[in-house]
Amino acid sequence: MTKRTKIEPTSEERRRFLQTGILAGATALVGTPGEQAKAQTADAEALQSGTPLMTAEAEATPPADVQVLGSDERSGSDFMVDVIKSLDFEYICANPGSSFRGLHESIINYGGNQAPELITCCHEESSVAMAHGYFKAAGKPLAVMAHGTVGLQHAAMAVYNAWCDRVPVYLILGNHGDAALRRAAEWYHDVQDAALMVRDYTKWDDTPWSLTHFAESAVRGYKIALTPPMAPVVLVVDGHLQEEPVAKNRRLPIPRLTVPVAPQGDSGAVEETARLLVGAEHPVIVADRLARTPACMGLLVELAESLQAAVIDQGSRMNFPSRHRLNHSQRARSAIAEADVILGLELVDFWSTVNALRDQLHRSTRRIARPDAKLVSITTGDLYIRANYQDFRRMQEVDLAIAADAEATLPALIDAVQRLTTRSRSRIFEARGARLAEKHRATAEAARAAAAYAWDASPVSTARLCAEIWDQIKHEDWSLVSSYYSDGGGWPRRLWNFDKPYHWLGHAGGGGIGYGAPASMGGALANRKHGRFSVAIQTDGDLMYAPGVLWTAAHHGIPLLSVMNNNRAYHMEVMHVQRMCNARNRGIDRARIGSEITNPNIDYAGLARSMGVHAEGPITTAAALRPALRRAVAVVKRGEPALLDVVTQVR
Amino acid sequence: MMSRADFSLLVVFAIMLGAVSANAGAQELGAAGPGQLVAAGCAGCHGALGRGTALAPPIVGAALSAAQFLAAVRSRRGAMPAYSAEILPDQSLAAMHEYLSAQPAPPRPAGRVEVGERLYEQVGCYSCHSNQGQGGTQGPRVGPDPVRWGRFVWYMRYPSGQMPPYSSAVLSDQDLSDIYAFLEARPRPVTSIPLLGP
């Protein structure tokens, strides 16, 4: 016979027992006679099975201790909200979870659901991707709350995208560290080391064990996230710490936030770079993750004009005006091939900028740049790198590597270039600038000519799609918040006039599909207060990862024009399988199996309408596109989201 | 492992060296004809009759004007080395161009537009070049006015860059001709589209 040991419940455990019992008792008391009888039977069964239940008799007994905060107390999570407010977060995204219920309640009640306002998301990946897009439009981070286990597992892909894009996302994970006080479900939601799962692709994490510790880690985390190279950080917040009362008069300090100034390049190295650029016959400036602030575009224009040098904007940020005569992004390969000095500013992949990899059965590589071209890099990528994930790309030999923030270094570089430029060099620069202007003009003309082919085709050509969108938005204060087609050669950058820092927010970072829809919502959320017209070119495969973000947009009134580039396939993958078919001589006619999104075709307009979003489609002809665009633009200008399902050609 | 491009370059230079070391010049190259191609080093990549090999496309037929031919030979392009006037004088190239232009272009089976349209979609040409051959972010425009037939077939079989190869086991010459016919039949764009103004 098993010997039973009587265990006296702790005060905390008694509270939990009573809370559980109160709910059960309420159920038993409010039903019809028949339901009450069923409830009593259930009570009896529950008692036999050992499940703790509050009986009607026990319900009548006053509780042994007080179950609400005293007038001289407040919750730990109220203080956490004080800390969060001190960091000036406008929004906090979350799919609700009990491990952060204390903080959730404090945000909406104690914090008044303002700064931060809680944004309800239907998936944690959406929460983080919204934060990713938001940062690139707002220039400051958005906070995200999630369960330490199941929430973070959903969020992980979006965290990886943000990491690869060096975008700070501020993650707050709920977790119950003390196993003795966990509710049943909390065993699944809790973990000893919550941040472990994403530690390889976050910059810093901590698990505070006191409110003072929380305040310091919260401010420290923010500071670390915003210091270049920027990246996501994780704060694991204990459930008990959130929910435990603390005396109101207990003084809990909040450290003052001072974000470090970004590091500028060594003055000697900057001087040497300027000397190389001024002396070059064909200098080329390549910018990728360069623009950290709205001021950067003006700085890059000044540097380029000082040298009359070609600029290649690789597009991870909005670095350089698309119609500037020195913008040679659309003829990047030719510009690189003729360059004698190449300055790389925050390049994600310098190697691929000056080399090419041929993806055939036997892969091969070759250098595109001249063998004698001098390469100079300025990047914070040299200041910080992590193991395991390979987002650091191939090692490119360079002649001068400046470990510094490129934007912070530009003013000194511009000064040095202007100081070293003699009159004779100026005349050479002018002649070069004229030649580059002519090449830019010819490239732009060729792009417009190319767009005219298949102009009236159905499905709608991607060139026509982008030209029609441009015609509707060009007089608005617009912002292209997401588009998979803005990669090199994409139609928006070939046809639209990008000349403001918020005209383009950049790529997904890690190439994880599913970024587009939520990131564009985040970008649009940041643009809303500025009255900007946000537009996204939304691919079908991307939307299907977490379409619930459409509901978030409708619920929170996020004005975004989402125009679908619906090619009814994960088309990049069709091409990869096709490549394998070709290489193996097995025929190509089945290459689309496993990658097409047809049979049935998805009714994206119906999907969006079901979530309260204005939507039209499928639109299969260019003739039907224009009036639908006009209607959708009017909806967005009223402050609501709109989606157009346009069936397009594949590329 | 040596890539095809590397191998191609090696062969070209080996043959060039051979030609040059034999004191190649206008006189030594002899009369215009296949022998001239061999002596000048062209045959190593383009074949003894100039009809193309896995290393380089056919060069027979009147695809280029004499001036274009001269410019192409004088400048390095891909695996094709530049031939200076010291190696191949202008008059030798002019004779070579005359000979090549007089040779028949590679034969082409009659193409069927409707079959080509189906094949273009079925074998995935549209993936990179878009539904109407107008090109896209992954591949250039291929129609209307495709490259000449001989070059087209050669590139389908032995593409450079990222284009996957289509062997004859996957697409016969007849299939290629049908696709070619479809590309030739693509409509020309309307000019002066207001939305595409500067």
Write the layout of secondary structure elements.
The complex is a heterodimer of chains A (651) and B (198).
Chain A lengths: L10 H20 L2 H17 L6 H4 L13 E3 H11 L4 E4 L6 H10 L6 E4 L3 H15 L4 E5 L2 H15 L5 E6 L10 H4 L14 E3 L4 H16 L6 E6 H5 L1 E3 L19 H13 L3 E5 L8 H12 L2 E4 L18 H7 L2 E5 L4 H5 E4 L5 E4 L6 E6 L20 E4 L2 H15 L2 H29 L10 H12 L4 E6 L7 H5 L20 H13 L4 E7 H4 L5 H8 L4 E5 L5 H13 L20 H7 L3 E6 L2 H16 L4 E5 L5
Parallel strand pairs in A: 2-3, 2-4, 4-5, 5-7, 6-7, 9-10, 9-11, 11-14, 14-15, 16-17, 17-18, 18-20, 19-20
Antiparallel strand pairs in A: 1-8, 12-13
Helix pairs in contact in A: 1-2, 4-5, 4-9, 6-7, 6-19, 11-15, 12-15, 17-24
Chain B lengths: L3 H18 L12 H7 L2 H4 L19 H9 L15 H13 L10 H10 L2 H5 L19 H9 L15 H12 L14
Helix pairs in contact in B: 4-5, 6-9, 8-9
Structural overview:
The complex is a heterodimer of chains A (651) and B (198). With 651 residues, chain A is of the alpha/beta class. Chain A contains 24 helices and 20 strands. Chain A has a six-stranded parallel sheet, with helices on both faces. Chain A has a five-stranded parallel sheet with strand order 10-9-11-14-15, sandwiched between helices. In chain A, α1 runs antiparallel to α2 (33-49) and α4 packs across α5. By secondary structure, chain B is mainly alpha-helical. Helices cover 44% and strands 0% of the residues of chain B. In chain B, α4 (66-74) packs across α5. Chain B is globular and about 50 Å long. Chain B starts with a helix and ends in a 14-residue tail after the last helix. The chains are: A alpha/beta (651), B mainly alpha (198). Chain A binds chain B through residues 358-360, 362, 364, 366, 444-445, 448-457, 459, 461-463, 467-468, 470-471, 485, 487-490, 495, 571, 574-575, 578-579, 581-583, 585-589, 591, 649-651, and chain B through 1, 3-6, 122-124, 126-139, 141, 160-162, 164-167, 169-170, 186, 189-191, 193, 195-198.
